[in-house]
Design a protein that fits this description.
The complex is a heterodimer of chains A (about 90) and B (about 190). By secondary structure, chain A is mainly alpha-helical. In chain A, about 70% of the residues lie in helices and about 0% in strands. The two termini of chain A are about 35 Å apart. Chain B has one domain: Serine Threonine Protein Phosphatase 5, Tetratricopeptide repeat. Chain B is built from eight helices and no strands. Classes of the chains: A mainly alpha (about 90), B mainly alpha (about 190).
Chain lengths: ~90, ~190
């Protein structure tokens, strides 16, 4: 005779919650990583690396740095509370 | 001191990135968990409303043509309308789900404005390409909030809506004043720089 049911029943909602938690936690770091990869491929987009002779706007608005900032702010302020609420949602 | 158009595009790209990440998170965890903290519920409608306000200085300062001014003011109005309607829905001042249709309206108007105010063909320059691509993206992306009004719990529709903003963000970040697109640059566009 073969037993069809697993020894420990799978807790589908728990697995789903775990996956969601990990994805939310990864959003910020992935955003930062995307900016780092972009900078490696197009270092000239980061004027901070060659600031001599650059005007105000070229130094103030640097897309890769803006993306890093968004990723860090998301990781610091949005993700922790969201993960906490997700874990409380049982 | 007035910034070149590319800086403004990059700043708005950042706004769209914030919107996209918030909406993606909401799609992943579900609206019930996302709205559990009130500041979070206000985050993306508030950002949309502020971006609408931010479009007014763009309309006033970038007066290349009447068409640009009309397009920018149309964006400002529909962004403020959609952001304001969503804020009122979160606050409970509005209750009908049909107010969510203002987002679809905002995307259609923004997409149309992007297409209409770009007078050059796709491969004229990178800027022209981005305006065409963004226009069609916003118009087709309007299907997500349109369908989401009637199926608010659909993950696919919510994720598609978030992805629309993330792709808009990528397009805006790749904008340059004068640059080629896939090796094409019309001589009429001027000399490429940075």
């Amino acid at each position: 005779m073969v037993r069809a049911e697993p020894a420990v029943p799978l807790d589908q909602p728990r697995v789903r919650r775990l996956v969601r938690t990990r994805v939310v936690a990864a959003i910020g770091p992935v955003t930062v990583l995307a900016a780092v990869i972009w900078t490696i491929f197009q270092p000239y987009r980061l004027t901070l690396l060659h600031p001599r002779g650059q005007g105000f706007w070229w130094l103030a608005v640097e897309p890769p740095l803006l993306i890093v900032l968004v990723g860090l702010l998301f990781s610091a302020f949005v993700a922790p509370g969201l993960i906490e609420d997700l874990e409380d949602d049982r | 001191m007035q910034p070149a158009a590319e800086f403004v595009h990059w700043l708005f790209a950042t706004g769209f990135l914030i919107l996209g990440l918030c909406l993606l998170s909401e799609a992943i965890v579900g609206a019930d968990v996302w709205n559990r903290r009130s500041w979070r519920a206000y985050l993306w409608p508030g950002t949309a409303f502020l971006m609408g306000i931010g479009m007014w200085p763009v309309m006033i300062l970038f007066t290349n043509s009447t068409l640009h001014m009309v397009a920018h003011s149309a964006w400002a109005q529909v962004l403020m309308l959609a952001g304001g309607a969503e804020l009122a829905l979160v606050r409970g001042r509005l209750s009908s789900r049909y107010w969510h249709l203002t987002i679809a309206l905002a995307l259609v108007v923004s997409g149309t404005a992007s297409l209409v105010h770009e007078q050059n063909p796709w491969y004229f320059s990178r800027s022209a390409f981005i305006h065409h691509a963004m226009g069609w993206l916003l118009i087709t992306g309007a299907l997500f909030p349109l369908a989401r009004t009637f199926r608010p719990r659909s993950f696919v529709l919510s994720a598609g809506f978030a992805a629309t903003f993330l792709v808009v963000s990528v397009l805006l970040y790749s904008h340059r004043d004068v640059a080629d697109i896939f090796g094409h640059l019309s001589p009429a566009a001027g000399a490429p720089h940075r």
